[in-house]
Each structure stands twice: as structure tokens, then as C-alpha cells.
Amino acid sequence: MTPDPRLRDARRCHHVLNPFHSTHYFSPDLGRELAAVGVPDRSAAYLAVRSAPMGAVGAGTVTATFYNFKHDLVARHVPEVWKAASPETVLAARARAVDATLRRLLGDEVLASKEMAEAAELALRATEACTRHARPLYAAHADLPVPEAPHMAYWHAATLLREHRGDGHLAALLAAGLDPVEALVSHVATGKGMAPKFLLATRGWSRDEYDAAAGRLRARGLLAADEELTLTEEGVRLRAEIETRTDAMDLAPYEHLGEDGVARLTELAAGFIGAALENGAFPADLIGKAA
Question: To the nearest 10°, the Cα dihedral for 280, 40, 54, 123?
Fold first, then answer.
């Protein structure tokens, strides 16, 4: 069946917007800025910067909204992290880290370009059609002010669009009956997910828990009985269905922007993230099935 071109184009745009947001998670600038405000632990820093828009929330809220992080890991750092730095302090540190990261990856000339300003305008226009209901991470970020600098405004808009889609994606995972670890393992099995060594180092799950989730997926007929994490036909169908459901729940911003706007935003976003990738924005072995 030919996919709906509107969903296809929206997903394509997401795929070049989402990594632009994520560049700061892999940047030494984030670690430096968070350490300077009293949060030197890398896991605590990630949990803090992503949840800070929600305020000084507890571990339960973070686990619920992040979905695939082990609660034990979250509870080790939250709400303790707020004693070291308030959400407002964390957000200010995050903004400094994002600015430094983008300047290093793209250069001042690109950040000040008319193309960056155009991308910011298009992405912000798309966010006008985002909705808050049942989207807690998006809703919290949507309450933050839009930065004045075009590159920061573009990053902010990319973040809103990423979290808007992400909140919907969690609903699709839940409807598909995938628990947090099964969601991770099945995504790895597509060949498009984060490599297991990065997941195990950041999400709090043990290798035994990861392997047990793979066993449950095999029992459901979603993974083949091999050691390669090969999706069965049913597994491929389920993962495709999850993405299509996510696309449908995330269509409004891109319909609001219009076909020409989506095409132009995709073109601009692809250029920015392409340059960032060339300048080492992410580890070379970030994606893959290798443990």
C-alpha cells in the first residue's frame, strides 16, 4: 500500500528536525555547563535538562514522560537534582550549551544567515498547530518563551516539534503493547535505533533485562529465533504500524505549514543537520544492532 504522501513528507521533515534538537545531548558543552551549576553526573544532566520545563517534578513524572528509562535510574537523580540546580538554572545552562554547540558545529555565519532565520520562521509557524492535550513534554516546552536569536528560535521550534511527535509516539507504543525495554529492543531490531551499548549506558537497564525483553518479543512472534535481532514479518508490520500511527497523530503541524512550507523546511533542515553531522555532532557508531 502506498503511504499517504502527507504522512511521508511530515516524517521526512521530522527526521531532519529531531537530530538538530538532539545535538546538545552528545555535546561536551552540555556537560560543562551542567557541571558548572552543580550537576556533574551525565545521567542527572540529561534527566534535568529534558524535564526542567515541567518544573521540579518527581521521579514518577519523569519516568512516565520519558517512557523507556528505568525508574530506578530516574529515582537515583530526581528529585535530588533540583537541590543542586533549580529548573530555571538548568534551562539557562541548557540554552548556553545549545548556543555553544551550534556555534561549534555550524559556525557563526550559518547561524546568522537568512536561511537560518527562514527555517526558524517556518518551524515556528508549524508549531502553531501543535496541541497540548495528552502531550506533557510538548506542553511544558510550549510554555517557554521563544528565544530572540534565529538559531535558538529554530532549535526551540525543532524541540517543540520533536516533543510533540514524541508524546504521540509513546501513546502508539503503549497501544502496541510494548513495554519500555521491548520498545527499545524492537527499535534496535529495525536497524534505525540507538546501538545497545549506548542504550544500556544511558537508560538504566541491565544486559539481562535487555535480553529478557528480546525473549518476550520472540515469544510474541515479533523477533526471529536468532541472535541478530531480526524482526519477523509480524515484527516489521508492528513497527511500521507504530510509525504510521505516530505520523497520523503528528500531522497537524505539517498540514498547517502546507506542502511547499514542509518541502522548504525539510530542505533547510537537511542542510543544517548535514553540516552538523560532518562536524562530528554524533558518535559514528551511535546507530546499529551491535552490542
Answer: -20
Cell of 262: 514542509
**Residue 30 near residue 24 (C-beta atoms within 8 A):** yes
State the amino acid at position 173 in one-letter form.
Answer: L
Helix/strand/coil for 250: coil
* Distance, C-alpha 205 to centroid of its chain: 19
Q: Confirm if 126 and 261 have CB atoms less than 8 A apart.
A: yes
Report pLDDT digits (tens) over 166-211: 999 999 999 999 999 999 999 999 999 999 999 999 999 999 999 9
> What confidence tens digit (pLDDT) does each residue in 75-106 have?
999 999 999 999 999 999 999 999 999 999 99
Helix (H/G/I), strand (E/B), else coil: 243 = helix
Nearest to 286 by CA among 191, 214, 205: 191
- H-only helix segments in the chain: 5-22, 28-36, 42-51, 59-66, 71-77, 81-84, 87-106, 108-111, 114-127, 136-142, 150-175, 180-189, 196-202, 207-219, 233-249, 252-257, 259-278
- Residue 122's CB is within 10 A of a number of other CB atoms, namely 22
Beta bridge partners of 287: 194
Is the pTM higher than 0.85?
yes
Exposure string for 244-255, b = 16+ CB within 10 A, e = fewer: ebbbebbbbbbe
Cell of 67: 517512557
Q: Tell me the three cell numbers of residue 211.
A: 535480553
